[in-house]
Predict the structure.
Amino acid sequence: MPRPRRAVMSTLRRKGLSEAEGDHTYYIYFTLDGRKTVAKTKVSHSGKDISDPVLGMMARQCKLAGPKFYDLVDCPLSRESYEQILKDQGFA
């Protein structure tokens, strides 16, 4: 189900992804102790909603399976839990 772009962007910031501006808005995850990880994604400046196919691409970029990414942006998945998933997969 598509998600509002602003809500997704806001949630990514709250979950520890830092924003970097360019032709797109890039989000890079930094661990709780400040180390940069390979988990990152980008959001286009166009459109009000982010479609399911794009959300799927964002999930892969953030190193999550689709349902876990929805949990991340819909808030059941905490920053600490996300970081633990990254650690378990060797990405943090």
Notes: The beta strands are 3-4, 17-21, 25-30, 36-43, 49-50. The longest helix spans residues 5-14.
